[in-house]
Structures are given as structure tokens and as C-alpha cells.
Specification:
By secondary structure, this protein is of the alpha+beta class. Helix content is about 50%, strand content about 15%. The protein has 3 helices and 3 strands, in the order βααββα. It has helices spanning about 10-15, 20-25, 40-55, and strands spanning about 5, 30-35, 35-40. A 3-stranded antiparallel β-sheet has the order 1-3-2. Strand 2 (about 30-35) and strand 3 form a beta hairpin. The radius of gyration is 12 Å and the shape is globular. The relative contact order is 0.19. The mean pLDDT is about 95.
Length: about 60
């Protein structure tokens, strides 16, 4: 079964960025907090990433 959420370190790995940069970026990415844990829904992460890419097309 595929995961429906990502942790911040998993998001960092997918984006090939550092964990600290990922924690900065998570403020702009749709996410939920479960207690102190941050989870990023995969579907919303993918949609956010596509929308960000569209903004940067020349």
C-alpha cells in the first residue's frame, strides 16, 4: 500500500533538498499537524509542486 502522507524528511528526499530547507518550505506546502508531527498529504504535495512549477515557466 502506498503512503498517503509524507514526513518532512521524506519530502526533503523527494525534492533533493536538505531537511532544514524542507522545514522552511513546509510553511508553504499543504500539511496537517498531528500532535507535534507534521504530515504532508501526497496528493496535495504533488498538486502544490505542479502549481509551483507552472508559476516558474518562462
Amino acid at each position: 500500500m502506498d503512503k498517503v502522507t509524507l514526513t518532512v524528511p521524506e519530502m526533503a528526499e523527494r525534492l533533493s533538498i536538505g531537511k532544514n530547507k524542507a522545514y522552511e518550505l513546509v510553511r508553504r506546502v499543504p500539511h496537517v499537524k498531528i500532535g507535534k508531527q507534521i504530515r504532508i498529504p501526497v496528493v496535495q504535495f504533488n498538486e502544490w509542486l505542479i502549481n509551483e512549477a507552472k508559476k516558474n515557466v518562462c
